[in-house]
Structures are given as C-alpha cells and as structure tokens.
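Honest question from a wet-lab person: if I give you the sequences of every part of a complex, can you actually get the arrangement of the whole thing, not just the pieces? Trying it with mine:
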Amino acid sequence: MRLTRYAVVALLVGIMALAQQASAAPSGPPVRIGSTLALTGPLAATGQVHKLVGDIYVEQLNARNGLLGRPVEWIVKDDQSKQDLARTLYEQLITVDKVDLLLGPYATGNILAAMAVAQRYNKMLIHHTFGIPSLATYDMQFPAWSLGPDPATTFPNTVLDALAASPKPPKTIAVVTSKFPSVQFVAMGAREVAKKRGLKEVLFLDWEFGNREFGPIAARIKDANPDFVWVGAIGLEGNQLLEAMKKIDYMPAEQFYMYPAPGPMVKAPEAKNALAATIFEEHAPFLNNPGAAEFVKTFNERAAKAGLADTAVETQAAASYTAWQILEAAVTATRSLDDKVLAQWLKTHTVDTIQGKLRFNGPSNYGDDLMRVKQVQNGRWVVVWPPEAAAPGAKLMVQ
Amino acid sequence: MNLPSPTLLAQAILSGIFVGALYGLLGLGLSLSWGLLRQINLSHFALAFLGAYLSYQLATVGGVDPLVTLLVIAPLFFVLGAAIHGLLSRFAVTPLNSLLVTFGLTVIIESVIQWYWTADYRRLASRYADITFRAGPLFVPLPELMTFLLSVSLCVAVWATLRYTDLGKAIRAAAEDAPIAAAFGVNQRTLAALLSGVCAALAGAAGVCLALTYTLTPSQLYAWIGVVFAAVMIGGLGSALGPLFAGIVIGVSEAITMALTAPSWAPLVSFSLLIVVLLVRPGRA
Amino acid sequence: MHVVGLFAAVAIALAAVPFFGLPAFYETFLYLVFHWIVLATSWNILSGYSGYFSFGQGAFFGLGVYATATLAAHYRWPFLATLPMAAAAAAGLGLALGTVVFRVKQVRGELFALLTLAVTFVLATVILNTSIDGGPGVYLSAVSLPAIGRTPASTFYLLELGLAVATLAIAWWIARSRLGTGLFAIHDDEDVAEVLGVPTFRCKQVAFAIGCALAGAAGGIHALFVSYVTVAETFSITVPLTVVLMSVLGGTRHWAGPAVGAAVITIISYASTTGDHVLAGKAAVGVILIAVILFMPEGILGTLRPGRTRSKRQQGEVPQAVVPAGPGDQDFPRPAIQSSTTGARVLSLREVSKAFAGIKALDRVTLDVYRGEILGLLGPNGSGKSTLINVVSGYYSADAGSIVFDGQSIERWPPHRVARIGLARTYQIPRPFAHSSVLDNVVLTAMFGAPALSRRDALIEARRWLDFTGLASKANALPAELNLHQRKFLEFSRALASRPQLLLLDEVLSGLTPTEIDSAVGLIRRIRDQGTTIVLVEHLMRAVIALADRIAVLDQGSLIAEGMPDDVMAQAAVKAAYLGTAANVAG
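Yes, you can. This is the full assembly:
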C-alpha cells in the first residue's frame, strides 16, 4: 500500500515537473500586444488557427523591424472558450501586464466580453471574427471581418443574387438554422429577404446548438424538397446535416451553409456544389492582395507542421491576419501607440488587407459587406460570387 | 404544424433507433461499472473518444479497416480499464469520489488527445461510409447499421454472460454482497478488474462506432454525457439491456419531436421523459 | 467564537482591498474566486450537509442569470432591484422541484443528481425556445452598474464579496443550527432521522431554497459581469460539474470546505491560462485533482480538520458527568409531556391493518398500552412485531384502523410529528448516524424530540443520558468505534434524550452476552422507574418474563393473546405459535 502511494506521488511529481518545465515564459521586448484565444475548450479548433496566424504575423513583423523600429511581443492567454475568463484575462492584460495594444479573442461572446473591458479602459480593440455587428456599440472597436453593418440583409441578398444569376434560379426556399446567435440572426434575415424577393418558403426550422441528431431534420428537408436550402450552420453542423441527407439519398438542388468548418466540408463528397460564406480563398483575385500569397504559403507550411488536418487559408485565418494588418497600418501611419490616435486614424482611413480595402466609417465602425459566396468545386473551395471576387473563370454550378 | 408524411416519420424513427443504439452502447460500460462496481466512471466518455481517435489513426495512417481496429483497441482498452480499476480499488475510492477521480482522468485524456491530434476536426473516411441500403421508401446507411448491430450484439452478449454463465453469476453475486460471495469462493478482486477491463473495452467499441459516424474534435466528448447518463438511469444501473432500450426510447422520442415540431424542442422531450420515469418509477435504477 | 472573529477580520480586510489601489485585475480575479465560492457553498447547504447531491446548480444559477438579464435588459429594472428577483426565482424553482421530488422516498443519491441535471436541460430548452432568450442571447450593455466601488471592477468585487460573506455566514450558521443538525442526520440515515423527530421534508426544502436563492443571486450578478448571456454558455454542464468538484475537494461536511475547494480550483485552473503549454497545464489540473481525491478522500478540510483526530485522542478520558449516575439512582428527568396520570391508556390501537403486496402484516390489531407499564410484545419471526412498531411510529401509514397516542389520533401523522409528542423507538440492528459522534447522535434527539431543546441545552441533556447508559467515556467517539453492546446502549440514549412518554424497544437484547443482557435489563427497569412507558418487543422469553407487566402476542399479523405473563404463556394458542405444534391456532 505504502509503496503504491509513493509510486503514484513520484509519477504525479514527474508529470508536474514536465508541465512546469514546458511553460517557461519568454522575457518581454518593448511593444507588447495582448490577446486571449480559445486554445482549449469547445472553440479550440478555430482558436488554434488564430494562434498560428498571430505567431506568423509577429515573426514577419519582427523580421521587417517590428513596430516603430521596436520589436513586438505578443502576449496570448488561453481563455478556455469561457466569457468570464476572457473578461478577467483582458483586465489582467491591461492593468497588470500593461500591454500597449490589444487584439480580440475568438468568437462573438468572448469578443463582447473583451470589448466591455476595452471600453472601460479606453483601449482600442481590433477583433477578428465578430458575427453580430449591431452588438458592437463601443466606438474604439474595429472589425477585421468586414461583414458590413447589416449582414442579415446584405448578405442574403448577395447569396440570392448569386443564385438568381445561375442557370436555375430557385423558386422555393427552406431556411433551417442552428440557434447559435451569429448564424441565427442572418438566417432570420434570409427569411425576410427571400420573402421580399418573391421566393416561397416551404420549410423553416431551427435546432439547438450542439444537436447530434440530424436525421429527422434531413428527412424534413427532403420532404419539403425546396429548390434552395439556406442552412444556418456553424462548425460541424453543416457536415452533420450533409451526411444525414446523403444517408437518405437526398441532395438539394442548391444549398448554402453559413459558417461551416471549411476543411471537413470540402473533403466530403456529398458537399459537391455546396455554397458557403467566405472573405478569402486561396486563389486570385485574393492572392493578388498585398502580402496574401506569401501568407498563404507560410500558413500552409506551418499548419501542416502543427499537425492540423486542414491547412488552407480561408475566413478565420484571413480575418486574423487582417486584424494584425489593421493594427500595423494604424501604428505605422500615426507613428503612435496611443489608442485614441490610432482609433481616430482608422475611422478616417482605409486599410489595404489581404481581404481587400477595409473602411471603418459606417455604423458600429463597419464598412462594406465583403462577404463572398464560395462553392465546393472539384474538391476545393472556389469563390463564385460576386463576379469581381470570383476565381478566374469560375461560375456557380448547379446539379 | 403540418402532419409529416409516413415516410418522413418512419425515416425519422429509424434514425432515432440508430442514434439510440449508440447511446446504449456508450451507456453499457458506464452502467456496468456503476451498477456492479459502484464506480461512476466519467472517463468512459474520454476513453470512447480516445478509442475513436485511435481507430481514426489506424484507419487513416495505417490503412486498417475500422472494424479491424477494434481487435487492437479492445484488448488495449481492457488493460487500461483494469489499470484504472487497480488505482480506484487500491485507494478504496467511494462512488462519488470515483466520479471526481475519473473526471481528472477525463481532463488528462482530453489534453492528450488535443496534444496529439490537435483541436482540428478529424473524420474517418471509411469504405463503409458511402453504402446505404434501401428498404422500400426507407434508407438504411451501413455505418449506422453496423453500430446498431454491434450495440445490440454486445448488449445481448453481456446480458447473457451475466445471466447464464458461472462467471456472470459470480460477478452479480459479488456486486450484491461481496463478503458472502467471497465466502463462497468468489475472487472478487479479479472479477472486478475483469469487469472494469470489459467496460473499458466496450468504451473502445463505442469509440470505433463514433469514428464511423461522426466527425471528431476533443471537446465533443462532453456533449454525450447528459443524454447517455439519462439512458443509463432510465435503463437501470448494472443492467446490460436497459441502457440500449432506454437509449432507443430517447433517440426515437427526440426524433419524433424533431419530425413533428421545432427540433430545438427535442431535449425537452427526452429529459422530461427522464424526470417522469424517475418520479413515477424510481425503483428502476 | 474565534472562528467568527477570524472570519469577520478576513471579510473586513477583503472589503478594504479596493482602497489599496491594486490593479483592477486582482479585484476581477477575486470576483471569480468569490463567484465560485458562492456557487459551491450554496450547493453544499443542501447537497453537502444532507447528501442530496444536486447536479442542478446550473439551473438555479442560470435562472438567476436570465432573471436579471430579462428584467434589466427588457424591462429596464435597476440592476440591484433585479437581484432579489433572481434569488426569488431560483428559490421558487428549488421549492417547486423539492415539493415534488422530496416526497418520493426513493429519489435519493444518484437519482436526485440526475433528476436535477434533467431539470437543467429542460429549463435551458424552455429559455432557448421562448421569448426569454429565443436564441440570439441577451446583451446587457445598456444596463448601468451602480457605483458601489470607485471602478466597475471594484463594484463587482464588493457585490460578490458581500454575497460570498453572506453565503459563508449562512453556511456556518446552518451547520451549527437545528436545521444543520437535521441535515447531517438526513445525510447518514434519513429514515431514522425522520423517526427520531427531524422534519426531513421541511429541512430539505428550507436548505434547498436557501441554497438556490444564493445561487440565483450569484447568477444575477454574473449576468452583468459577462454582459452577454447565451443559453449554451449559461447552462453548460461545466457549472454543476465544477461546483461538485470544488465542494468534494474542499470537504462537503465542513461549512468552509466548498470555499476552500473553490479557491483552489479557480486558482489552479487560472494558472494554466498563460504560457505556451496550456495543454500541459490543463493536464496538470487533472493530475492534481486525482492526487487530492486519492490522498484526501474526505476533502481538504475533511482530512485536515482537527476534529477528525479528536475522537481518538479523547477516547480514554472520562468527560465530566453533569449528573452523577449509577444503578438505582432515581434522580432522572421525567418525560417532557405528561398529560395523563399513571394507569391511563397512553396508546390505543383499534382494528389496525397493514398489508404489503397483498400479504397482511397486521390484521385488525386492537391493543392498549397503559401509562407506566412495560408491555412485552411477543411473536415468532414475521408475526408483525416490527411492522407494528413502524406503523405506530408513523414510518408506515396504516391501511385501516385508528391509533390514538396521548389522546391524539396519529395514524396519518408523519413520523417526526409522532416523535415530537413523545414517542421514541430503538432499532434491532442499531442505526446510529455514522458520521456524527456518539454525543451528537444523542444531541439530535434532545433537539428534535419532545423537549425540543436548544443545542446548548441539548448538549447537557445528551451528556446526562450518556452517563445514564454508561457511555459517557465514548461521547466523542464515532459509532463505528463502539461494540454491539455499546451501540445498543447508544440507541437507548438516543431514544431517552427525546424524553419519550412511550418507548418502543425493538429486540434490544438480541446478540448480547448474558452479562450484557443483565445490564440491559437493569437499564430498562431504571428507564421505566423514571416514568417512561415501554413496549418491549423481544424474542428472549426469559427477559420478557422478568421485565414485563403484561404481555401481548402477535401471530401472522393478528393479536392472539394479551394479559398477565403467566396467564398468556399458559394459553394453548401461544404455545402453538411459539412451538409450532398446532397447524393453525388462530383459526
């Protein structure tokens, strides 16, 4: 008995020692930028993409002489996908670590928590993928994901424009959505827009985020048999629904997925011709944007090295990179680290990013709706709409 | 609310049966260790996910058929389960504390999975995935059918073993009254380790089924806890067929709700069902 | 007393933290610690003390979150005004749930845990699908925070500190109060607690309501703290799981245990948020948790508490006796309630029947017990003796017939009410409260029995009865440290401390050695001599003949004889029932 106890203690001490050794902190050079990311917990799949992008950007930044000639240190903490922890960590970054500048965390809830802290301390907050513009009421927050101020109206119109220009414009629509805040409100907008545009809604339903069982939902879509399905899906939900539909041998003529996990979807054969939202894909014209080609190459390599299953750059990685570009542009132009000076500059200037030109002078500091419609074609994502963003020669395909 | 077509309803019920069979398979090992060993093994879910990832790894990298990976995973997990039991029994952990120890274990296993496979999504591409049978207007996908058959045969096998073999009788005797059983020559420690190993191997089998039908990400393991616990409680602790039966009842009732009304109401049905069962027939568990 | 002083000093020192000009982060971090202290401690009031493990803390916390979010964001209530409503909503849900669940005897342990978890999911589904949330979440940016502290961080800190201090004070007070004594007894053996006079249903309800109200208030504050609330986040399984972990880690039988656990877990989980190796940190949390549970199975405070070793240390000492005791000493307290004179009927059963699954355990039994007598109740195994005791004490309700005790019809009363008016029983196989000391076992009945003493008076009373039964030297031992004879005497002490008018002794002599039997017989005589009426259910003929004034005999649920010992024993039917010679004597 005693021997076992000692053995267990020794083992535990050993593991702890390893853990400790592994987490030695680097010392801090001058310009310090603080963020939290969901490195563990349910949002970690995307959090790790932002971590990778940040590491790449800081490396590149320091290789070209940092910010204002000073090296850049990125302090990133793990908010464990929890809002209350994100809030507390931002408070730590501001009041204890006394970072110079902030970058946002991942996912709408955590960004809102961080935004409230930033507001309290008059810090500028640039964030990557915030889904509900109307909730961004702080005037020194800047979105790197250019959704426009009213994506619930503008984006469904983009999608339906794309379909209207296709060889088979849909006459009936089914709207099915997860009750996940940032996809649900766009789905509700899509219902309105479709109604205004004269599409007949043959089915609407919603499910709880975290639902495991998509068989009955697929069966109901099959039963309604619409020309076009708008799927308010986030993460794996898109794949789950696609698989469920495949199992009952059904594929809608045209289908759109809001924010699917891009890797799993593009690899699924049943996702042929599925549409989704994006702001960046790995082809022209996006690759012609300054810095895009180099970033894509580096990211592909680093993601492969980090063991990610999906190494492609799309919305999340691009928005993350954009956030850093916005920050660098503002600091370089103003030669300042003062949050107010930077925020003022951003409100009156446009920034060249790998997404395109971003402006921040609309409601909630949002500018244009740069959301694009992409499609799975021959096992890869290709932007098909609007025409000026489409891959060379790419057209929307229908069954 | 429009009444759904009979085909839609039947297809929904079928998919409820399939997902219910998976609840039952996940619940089987949990129910046995809870009812017969008095260990509430939360790490059962982590083990199932570890099994799923191992199956993914062997199938994707090693090119092994997912069903064949079961032959590797089951013995491996058997040893793992016996080892966990060794730890719990060495320290005479109470049922409640076993919940906490195995929660610690869950966190460790989750970290290991994320460290090795990252938090990115993993999908096992098997040759079974694309096969679907037709039965009249209904569709029966092969991976689900395999899960169902594996679940039913394992549950029945465990049930028959417990009921009809000397080994099973000894295990049940030891669970009911350890000192008396010991007096009749039952070696309770060996039996308990054996049973714990079997439970872990069952978790591994459930993991292979998970890999066959679901895309994996580490934190997903927590998503199954609520509903599988419900199946185990409704089915009765220590019962082999109970969780399968209860799992199918839950799966079907949720599927019917989803077919008839807003799918987001589905959890209300299954968990209200659980509440009613607990209040009306508390003796079941 | 020093605990109170220390506690107050720490609370005051913490209240001064905002004035030291520390970075706001420390206040926010401490807010999180206090937040978990409130959730864990409020959970512990029912679940830790009484053993009704709830997995529903997420529901009560979440209801508080949404009460505040709805009232403040939709109805524009001032934030502070929403907090009492958050507490009330959660307490209301707890009471409603308790009203249903606590009446079902079998819903204990894991079943209660699962039931409360299911309620959480049901509540989450309802909120998600109705206008309370509907899916988009509730954003509280427009809700203004009252300026209690100089900064928002200070305000949240002070609010949560106040709630944490209140929660701990309540938990501390309950642990020492009548309610807490009842809850701890429920934890060890709820049926016995009820029979000994603990109003178990009310105890659980009150504890549940208090715990839920505190969790609801914490939810209300937290809603504004995170400022954007969603169903998925609020009702996630993390809350109930974390709360249980924290409480068990710290020790559930100690008022401060959950707080210690909450502080430890919040700090170590926070420690793994920085650095490049968060996964290693997370794994380390798991390792620490396993290590603590394995080496401190009763939790940190449960293991470190000095009280744990005290019982062993003091075993040899003889506590000072309040009343000098010895055989033949007549100076004992009288039963608390004595409304009739000796010789009157104290208990009357008329045509009492009770059946289980169709088998008649009691068949129209009519029996009187007279004040001051010892009535021997005889009968072979399965004749209905134990059922009779259980029916009289209210544990089983009779199917038919009337039971009048001390002039009151008690056949529909819950057991604790019967105990209150002076009816006590012992168990054939002693059922002491395993986690309480011998002294505390006896204190309980003095508090909940007929005299309904305060804890302080009950202590004096309990020591008196321990002296009476000769267990004084074992006062601080745990029941497990006693031998069978001593445990039987503990049953006596426990019953006597409730100052019963009528004492039902269920086979107290079985399993004892002849010497021990002699001392028990002496004890029973002394109990009667100080005025208590006794019904002696016994197998051992010799002892019954020696003790009983009258004898009644049960066979197959029917009363077949009643009268003076010699007369009854001479009856053929009795002989037949006992010796099994005639096939069916009762006819």
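Two things worth pointing out. Chain A touches chain B through 46 residues (CB under 8 Å). The CA atoms of residues 160 and 194 of chain A lie 8 Å apart.
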